[in-house]
């Protein structure tokens, strides 16, 4: 009983810490003021021989770990894809960790398995995934994408599973703006980076369909085997959208797998103005969308939707005796990928969807998009700055380009602005390059970001640009 009381007290203290954190994440610098090695230097060389009291562990978390973290929950986090954890999802994570199920077989947790089916159907319906597709949760879009490519490889050559890669090279089609995980998947699947073909983009950084068709035709003439096209709805650098419908017509014509990477922007399809974002998906084979990017679900939860789930099972299913079951009419998620034991990730998505409701989510996504559009309008209105790409969602690529700075110096100049803003702790940004042009990137996606925060970012940028 004493032990239970002690435990309750520890839980209460952590709960209080979390509640205070979410009340004021801005209490911390968004980007910590630490030098490399500084955290490790504060920690002992060896694990303690005997157990330590919880208050000492928590005190060290508060003193060493929290202040040296980059605070993705900070309202002035504008880097990469800005994300944030809804507190309700953090509660779900605590409950999932408490149950500590390994959701690999239906019988290793019926609730985790069936909630995953239900909650991914909910999400799929919200973003326009056909009802007969199957949803599966992975940790990240990188692994979900790898898994989709493995299914595509199995479809084109089922024998690879047993005898390994042989015959003419398999080809994967992307653009310069496709996320790098596709190339990594090609490495891991034995396809090879050299067989990842970069299709040309238009001026809006979107794949040009007739160039895709030309690449596939040329490969076929050369005796190569076109395997998969990856089209992106919301590319990482600019959030450009590859034209799905014409691309899908081409992949259908040639019998090539079409994987749609909507890791970031797929969530926007929940908003009525973006309902058509994934139009053409029914002619594709798989889709990935990341609730851990723009749906307020803490890292990690990536949803893969697949048209032919049997194809994915064929690619991965391998059941050793100790995992064999006779359960009928159930899904065993271990059959759909590399991983065996799986976290109970569906719980946090269920909590988030119920907590906000669809209307609440739409309202927040709209607010992020509106803030990004307003930020872009400030950049556009200032003759010393320029917007560098279309910005359909909540990310803006831009740079400082005053007449006084020579074009050759613009990259170093903008990199200095980025470093100065980030070092100041006032806001946190990242960058990219667009056709060789260095671009600053402002991503808005945090639940707590307000117009004041975006104005503060703009002020900080202008100050640093002229300092
Ligand atoms: N695809 C796109 C379009 C992305 O922007 C990203 C990450 O930003 C990924 C995939 C990889 O996501 P994850 O970190 O979930 O692997």
How does this model look, in words?
There is one protein chain. This protein is of the alpha/beta class and 467 residues long. The protein has helices spanning 2-23, 38-41, 54-65, 87-99, 110-127, 141-156, 160-163, 181-188, 209-221, 244-254, 291-294, 309-316, 346-381, 410-424, 451-466, and strands spanning 134-138, 170-174, 196-198, 225-232, 257-261, 286-289, 302-306, 385-387, 395-400, 430-434, 437-443. The strands form two sheets. A seven-stranded mixed beta sheet has the order 1-7-6-5-4-2-3, with helices on both faces. The protein has a four-stranded antiparallel beta sheet with strand order 8-9-11-10. Strand 8 (385-387) and strand 9 (395-400) form a beta hairpin. The longest helix has 36 residues, at 346-381. The model has no long low-confidence stretch (mean pLDDT 97). Residues 81, 140-142, 179, 181, 232, 234-236, 261, 263-264, 290, 302 line the site of pyridoxal-5'-phosphate. Pyridoxal-5'-phosphate is lined by residues 81, 140-142, 179, 181, 232, 234-236, 261, 263-264, 290, 302.
Task: List the total number of helices.
Answer: 15
Q: Please list the strands of the largest sheet in the order they lie side by side.
A: 1-7-6-5-4-2-3
Mean pLDDT: 97
What value does the Rg take, in angstroms? 24 Å
| CATH H level, superfamily name of the largest domain | Type I PLP-dependent aspartate aminotransferase-like (Major domain)
Number of domains: 2
Helix/sheet category: alpha/beta
Q: Give helix % range.
A: 40-55%
Residue windows where pLDDT falls under 50 for at least 5 positions: none
Tell me, what is the CATH class of the largest domain? Alpha Beta
CATH architecture name of the largest domain = 3-Layer(aba) Sandwich
| CATH topology value of the largest domain | Aspartate Aminotransferase, domain 2
């Amino acid at each position: 009983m004493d032990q239970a009381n002690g435990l309750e007290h520890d839980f209460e203290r952590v709960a209080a810490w979390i509640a205070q954190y979410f009340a004021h994440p801005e209490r911390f610098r968004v980007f910590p003021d630490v030098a490399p090695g500084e955290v490790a230097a504060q920690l002992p060389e060896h694990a303690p021989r005997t157990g330590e009291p919880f208050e000492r562990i928590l005190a060290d978390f508060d003193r060493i770990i929290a202040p040296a973290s980059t605070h993705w929950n900070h309202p002035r986090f504008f880097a990469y894809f800005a994300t944030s954890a809804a507190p309700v999802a953090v509660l779900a994570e605590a409950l999932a960790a408490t149950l500590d199920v390994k959701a690999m077989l239906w019988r290793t947790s019926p609730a985790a398995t069936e909630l995953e089916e239900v909650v991914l159907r909910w999400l799929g319906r919200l973003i326009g995934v056909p009802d007969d597709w199957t949803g599966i949760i992975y940790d990240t879009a990188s692994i979900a994408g790898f898994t989709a490519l493995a299914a595509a490889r199995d479809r084109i050559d089922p024998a690879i599973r047993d005898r390994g890669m042989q015959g003419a090279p398999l080809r994967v089609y992307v653009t310069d703006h496709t996320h790098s995980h596709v190339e990594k998947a090609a490495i891991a699947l034995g396809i090879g980076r050299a067989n990842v073909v970069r299709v040309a983009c238009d001026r809006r950084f979107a794949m040009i369909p007739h160039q895709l068709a030309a690449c596939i035709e040329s490969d076929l003439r050369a005796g190569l085997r076109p395997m998969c096209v990856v089209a992106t709805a919301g590319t990482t650098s600019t959030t450009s959208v590859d034209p799905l419908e014409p691309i899908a017509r081409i992949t259908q014509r040639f019998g090539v797998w079409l994987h749609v990477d909507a890791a970031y922007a797929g969530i926007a399809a929940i908003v009525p103005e973006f309902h058509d974002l994934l139009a053409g998906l029914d002619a594709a084979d798989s889709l990935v969308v990341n609730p851990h990017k723009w749906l307020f679900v803490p890292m990690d939860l990536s949803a893969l939707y697949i048209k032919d789930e049997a194809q994915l099972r064929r690619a991965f299913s391998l059941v050793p005796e100790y995992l064999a079951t006779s359960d009928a009419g159930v899904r065993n998620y271990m059959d759909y990928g590399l991983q065996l034991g799986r976290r109970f990730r569906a719980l946090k998505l269920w909590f988030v969807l119920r907590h906000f409701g669809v209307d609440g989510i739409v309202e927040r996504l709209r607010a992020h998009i509106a803030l990004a559009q307003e930020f872009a309008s400030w950049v556009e209105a200032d003759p010393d700055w320029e917007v560098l790409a279309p910005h359909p969602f909540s990310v803006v690529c831009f740079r400082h380009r005053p007449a006084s700075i020579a074009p050759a110096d613009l990259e170093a100049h903008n990199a200095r602005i980025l470093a100065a803003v980030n070092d100041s702790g006032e806001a946190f940004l990242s960058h990219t390059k667009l056709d060789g042009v260095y671009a600053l990137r402002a991503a808005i996606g945090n639940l707590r970001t307000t117009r004041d925060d975006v104005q503060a970012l703009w002020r900080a940028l202008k100050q640093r640009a002229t300092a």
